[in-house]
Amino acid sequence: MAATSPPQDIPMPDTQTPPAIPTGASEEPKYGGFTRFEVELEFVQSLSSPLYLNHLASLKYLENPAFIAYLSYLQYWSQPQYAKYLMYPGPTLKNLELLQQERFRGDVLSPEVVGRLMEEGVQAAEAWRGS
Predict the structure, then answer these.
(1) Which residues, listed in sequence order, are joined to residue 30 by a DSSP beta bridge?
(2) pTM of the complete model
(3) Which of 20, 62, 73, 92 has an alpha carbon within 20 to 30 A of 38's alpha carbon?
(4) 3-class secondary structure, 98
(5) What is the pLDDT along the chain (131 residues), one digit of tens a residue?
(6) DSSP letters along 1-47, please?
C-alpha cells in the first residue's frame, strides 16, 4: 500500500469575508453548481462528526497551515445569522472551536478521544430529547 503524502495547498476564498447568505436569485459564482455559502455550509457541518475529524487528522490535513487558517476563517459560522443554517449547531460549533487548538488537532487521532466525543454527542442528544 502506497503511503499518502499530506495535502500541499488548500484553496482559500479570494477574500476573508464570509459568503453572502442566499436570498434567492443570486449572481454569486458557482463551484460545481453550488454557491460558496452552500459549499462552506456542507463542509462546516461535516465537522460535527468525530469520525470525520479523525479522518482529516489521519490524512494530515490538521497539520497543514493553510487548512488550519481555513478552519479559523470558518468561525464566522458561530454568528447567529449563519448558525441558524446549521443542522447540528451544538457539535458543529463545539468541534470547530476545538479545532482551533493545536493539541486537540493532534489528540483527535486517538480512538479514545473520538469515542469520548461520540459519547458526549449521544448524551447531548438524549438530554435534548428529554427536555
Answers:
(1) 35
(2) 0.81
(3) 62
(4) helix
(5) 444 544 444 455 556 789 888 887 667 788 888 899 999 999 999 999 999 999 999 999 999 999 999 999 999 999 999 999 999 899 999 999 999 999 999 999 999 999 999 998 888 777 777 76
(6) -PPPPPP------SSSSPPPPP-SS----EETTEEHHHHHHHHHHHT
